[in-house]
Structure formats: C-alpha cells, structure tokens
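Ligand: iron/sulfur cluster. Inputs:
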Amino acid sequence: MPRKIDSSHKNHLDTEVGTIRKDWAGRTRVALIFPNRYHVGMSNLGFQTVYRLLNERDDVVCERGFLPEEPKGPASTLESGRPLADFDLVAFSVSFENDYPNLLSVLKRAGIPLRSEMRGDSDPLVAAGGVASLLNPEPIAPFIDFFLIGEAEALLAPFFEVYRPKAGRKKNLEEIARLPGGYVPSFYAVSYHPDGTLENFSPRGDYPPVIVRQISGDISVSPACSAVITPETSFGSPFLIEVSRGCPHGCRFCSAGFVYRPPRFMPLPRLRECLDRGARLTGSIGLVGAAVSDLPWLGELCGSALQKKVRLSFSSLRADNLIPELLTVLGKGGVKTATIAPDAGSERMRRVINKGISEDEIFAAVETLVSNGIPNLKLYFMIGLPTETNEDVEAITRLCKGIKHRFLSSSRTRGRIGEITLSLNSFVPKPATPFQWAPMEETLILKQKIQKIKAALGPVSNFRVHADVPRWAYIQALLSRGDRRIADLLVLADQNGGNWPRTLKETPVNPDFYVTRERREDERFPWDFIDPGVDKSYLRQEYERALNGVATPPCPPEPCGRCGACP
Ligand code: SF4
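Predicted complex:
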C-alpha cells in the first residue's frame, strides 16, 4: 500500500525533474543518504551520480534521504517516504567532515543502533563512501558496517557481485572485506603508543592490511552529470556536468587534487552529449571539476554552449588560463560574478602552497574578466598556511588593494562598477596531502589575522570581506585528522545537542593532539592503511619542498612516475 509522503518531501519532489521511481519487488533496496539538508545534498554532483548509477542497475532500487527538516522528525526516504530501517542498505555519501554529527542524528532518527557492534541481522547494513571516507574513515569507523573506498564507478559492480541481501550480516561483511576497496572496520584491531600516536593497525583475520583506493580508469564510460534538477540547490537549478577529475597542478593543500590523481578529463563527445541533455532540461549548465580551466577542449565546449544558447557557469577559474572562448561564453551568458582563488597573498606563500600563479597573472585576470563584462569578483584566500608570517598576511591586504585598483580602472572604462567579495578561510591540513604533517594554526591567532585583514579592507568601498569561523575549522580539522577515539567525542557532542564548547570541555580527549600538533616524520597516521594512489614518500618530499618555498611543476602531458598515481 502506498505511504503518505511527509509534507517537506512532497514540497521537494514537486520541484524536481528527473526523480527516479522504481518498484521494490525483487530488488535490493538502497537508501542513499546525504547527511545534510536537501539543498546541500542536491548541490552535490557525487551524490547525484551515485543515485543515478545505482538506479541504472535493474537489480537495485535506490531512494534518497537527507537530514530531516523537522527538528525531531523521523528519517525516511524522499521517493516513497519509507523509514530507513525498511531498506537492505543504508549508504551515506559523505563529502564534509562537519556532517559527521548529522550522520549520527540520521541513524538515531531512523531507529538504527548507532554502533555497528549493536546491530543484528534485522538491521540494514550501514555503508559509507565519498571523499571524506577516502581521506580518513576512522573517526566514524565504529558507526559504519563497511566503507567503499574510492570512486563509485569502480566499486559498485564488484560490490553487487558479492552482496546478497538474504545472506546475513556476517557473511556479507566477510565478502565485502575481501573486495578491492572494501573496508570493514570491525575486522581490524587498533592499538596506540603511550604518547597517543598509532602503534598498530592490523586485520583480525585473513583480510588485506592495506585498502587500495579504487578509481575509474575511464571516466567517460558513465559521465557524471545531474540526475535530478531542482531549483532548491545552493546555486539555483543548473544541470551539473563533471568535466575533470583530479588536478595536474598539485596545490599542496588540496585533498581533491591529490586523492583523485591522476588528472582525467572527460572526452569532448561525451561532454557534448551531456550538454545536449542539459540543454533539453534547463538553460543553465554548471561545469564541475578541480581543473575546469585545464580542460584541453574547453574552447570547443564553450563554442557548443554558445550554439545551444545555454549559460555556462564554473565553480572557480584559474587566473592563468582565461581563454577567449571562455570569456565570450561568460560575457554572453550574462555571468555576474567570477571566482578566482589566489589562495595566498605573497609570491613566497604561493610557492609554499605550489599555487603556480603570479601576481601579474592575477591582475591580468581581473582586468580581463571585468573588461569582458563580468561586473563582480569573488576572491578566495586562506589564512594560517604553513610558514605564514605577518608579512604574508599583510600581503593579502596589499594584493586585494592592487586587485581593487585594476578592478576600478577596468570597470570605469565599461561605465559600471561592481563589487569584490573576499572570502577568507582558515587553512585545515588534510590527510593524504603534503600538509598532513603540518599543525593547524591556533584559533586565537586565526581570529587575530582575520581581524587585521577586516580592519584594513573593511573601509574600502565596493569591497566586502567574509570570513569563516576559525572554531568550526578547528572542529573540521579534529574530525578529519582524528582516529577511532574521536567516535566517542561525536557521541558526546550528540548527547550535548551539538554543543561543541561543552563537549570539548567534558571529553577526556585532548583535541589539540589531533589539530595543532606538528606530526613526526615517521609517525604512522590513522589513515595510512589506505593506499590513496600517491606515495607517502612523495607527499613528504612535497612537504619539505613547501617548507623550503620550492615549487613543483604540474603533471606533464604524458603520465610520469613522479608521485606514483599513474599506472
Ligand atoms: S605520476 Fe606524474 S603524471 Fe601521474 S599524477 Fe603523478 S605527477 Fe601527475
């Protein structure tokens, strides 16, 4: 009998184009959960791609779930309104560590026991994947029955070869633990040295000691683009197309650039097919990827977009690669704001992070964008980067004033003056990047740096400064750099209703141990059991080059053996 669908679900469904509905009979039932609100999840192309890939299988029915809108509402799926406990699998797609508390909340509100060890054969198997799990699954390991580590295109087919809904929890987990990329935390034992660092991480049986991240050798087999379109996303209702995965530039802070190596680009014919599909549904297409401006056939793709009269938008543009076709499509599409990310203020600091963009290139990009009719700019910078000095912080202000000067001159020529928004973000050293050894800057110092920049740029006309909250960045660092002991902290935070100051005061865990401590060169990290493709020795070499202010060139056109990620 069909269920009555919750009113917030109905409101969402009413706005959607592309909702997939399938019969449950004879199929494996998967509830795919994004542990945040609907509009955040639906803005995430990775989540949408897994929804499509699962439903492309005839033997699977996949429905979506989100953090419920009502404060105490039960967790159910959007398509049928069924409780999560009715499904064979509850699979979390986790992109952001700050969503971990939401993951606990969804499990509780679904009536599913929080810890894997408390679940029995009548409970669904709880799975997780996504970039946060690929970097370091350990802080949520006790809540998850199994992780799939890597890209869905490479993982799903082998998974459904071995998974049998009726086989029972133990048998299924044993099979999954032997799959490439399958990780069952309860099958691994962890011990710690007296100083708190990891001593040992080993399988409790005949399971692989290292989990090798699985990636798709050919991303064109199933191009990632929006499955469902809705205006209720963080950026309107564009049809999203993934143009690249990984990034050749090797910015040392960027986890997506490293864990998705080698850089891969979607071939032009497949991009044109996606563009056609998107153009039939909406006039607005968003190109997604860590290296959109590096797409070798970006000019041709822009030409196709112009022909079809669709508007193209880009997550962020590299200041050194603004080709004429791109500028034409931005100008004709009426794009109002372009984002460029200098990331650091001084040339020295940009060498440390391996940004590979000079001040002159940034100024030239500003003039080019404004003179091509884009009135507003968004600038993205980080504070608290390794080796950052007061001069480097002052250089952010100086560079912004220089940008403002060029912005005004070019805007006056066009007779229209827009606005510059500066986005200031606290640097979080992430696992599987060269900065995984680095300490995070103290919260108080980050606040002082933000105040200093705000004081210098606040009075500047047509200039707005937005800064993140360093305390939240601190929590993000704790959740991304932690080990299994952080799971208890998450439970405590949940019991405290999300009150982190109280939680940090009550916990026996010393959070600074995870966040603000520089790690020893030979330290074994909680995430070292994952082989992320890039060699740890290469990451260390890159960290040392960073500390010495030495840049590393981008990936060459042909695969090389430098970092270990290319076959
Ligand atoms: S092996 Fe070479 S080409 Fe391949 S990802 Fe590493 S640096 Fe780039």
